[in-house]
Amino acid sequence: MTLRRTALSGSALLVMSLAVGGLAAAAPPPSSAGGSSAARLPLGPADLRESRVTSTLLPGVTLAKITRGQTGPGSTWTVEVAIPSSSPDPDAPATALSDKPGADAAAAKLAAAGLEARVEDVPTPRLADAGGGSLGWRVRLGSFGTKAEADALRTKVIAAGLSGSSIYTGWDGEPDDISGSTGPWQVQVLTIDPKRFRGSLDATYGLDLEARETTSTLATLTGATAAINAGFFVLDPKAGAPGDPAGVAVYDGRLVSEPTAGRPALVLGARGTSVERFRWHGEVRGLGRPLPLDGLNRVPGLIRNCGGTADDLPTAKPLHDVTCTDADELIAYDASYGVATPSGPGAEVIVDRRGIVTAIRPTTRGGGIPEGGRTVQATGQQVAGLLAAAKVGKHLQIKAALTDARGHDVRLDRRTTIVNGGPELVRDGRITGTAKADGMADNANFYYGWVHKRNPRTIAGVDAQGRTVLITADGRGVNSLGLGIGEAAAVAKSFGLREAINLDGGGSTTMVANGQVLNTPSDATGERPVGDALVITR
Known about the structure:
Structural class: mainly beta
Strand content: 25-35%
Radius of gyration: 24 Å
Number of strands: 37
Strand order of the largest sheet: 2-3-8-1-32-31-33-29-30
């Protein structure tokens, strides 16, 4: 395949990696031309020490490293109890949050075993359409300097008939005046000045969509000076093809994955960088009436992050980290998907580069994709319609287009790149955090772990000068607290971003420069293979 390259087209670029580590030696703050002269980071108490060190990577490319805060006495190890469900369903799982009676009952059970527990209310910051007030109640025990001590107490919790996890309180998402967190946080800012740098910013998925590569591998494949992980993708084979974008994806102006209905995405192109919301429409037109497409380049019946069509279950709305299903689908493929299309019952039509049907698989799916051609798969009740529309030797037209917030078709050209994300963090220079609209607020326990708590984050946006900004934040470690979604939005705003979006995070969060991984990915196995990456090339 041809790896993706799109011109910067007059936009400066900043790439930031937020990590957590020890304090660096103090250095003068970089100049405003470096793009990192933002206000002090809005993390922890206002009087935390913050230092900056700058260096030049290439003509027109500078790297600024910002270190803020240090480990303080307010962060300790504790045991967070999984509270049994009060649901009549015996298979209902235990959860970190409950109502007050449920939390009190779990604490009473521990007390009967001689274990003293704390029942804590969990206040959460207000976002644009979610949060504010109390998320629920949790149960915790102990306060220790080491994880080993918390693990020892956890064995006693298990012996008492409950379960739980050893948690570092520095990862809590409550306001700092409650949590007492003082960091540390380490921020790296890479600035590319278009007046001096003539390189490009683009996205690449590597060899094909249905495979995953690490961000450093994608950087190597493209010869990139720097790279950062990008959109959400399928990780579990039960949710689709691992590596497949879990939302909109456009590379070299080609729409290869449909949007998650109305969720935001990062757009790079000739007009600069922006954060936009998309929907789409697609159809197959052959003999008889046109047939509406359900998706592009994904396993039929599995819609990761939901947000598909009205007949999807359990919902057609975005629902993050959930796989919706639909037994009756029509999916189109091109060579970007992989060597072969997904196999299984149904039907498949093969179309050459001229749009002529060359073969029909009437009872089974799966096989090669012709060079320059496409295939269309049907499952369930869609099979009859596809077989009626297709005839060997006849034309079969496959159309797909993005639509914007006003319902107008979006014009894509060779320089257009779009990667999926969510929630939106900043709009018109104001903090938003659209967790509810983007499917992250339907379940209090998911919200607690994904939105409220500090996690590794990857952020992208654009400032008032048209400079593109990419951020990574390490987390899930004692020396790497991470960011809650509200904190991520505040950090983005502190760098003057007028638009910003949360990209894939957690173990995916990675930044690479000059062949080196600059942050500390949180997976125990090290750098995680991802679906795609943003790459900066000479």
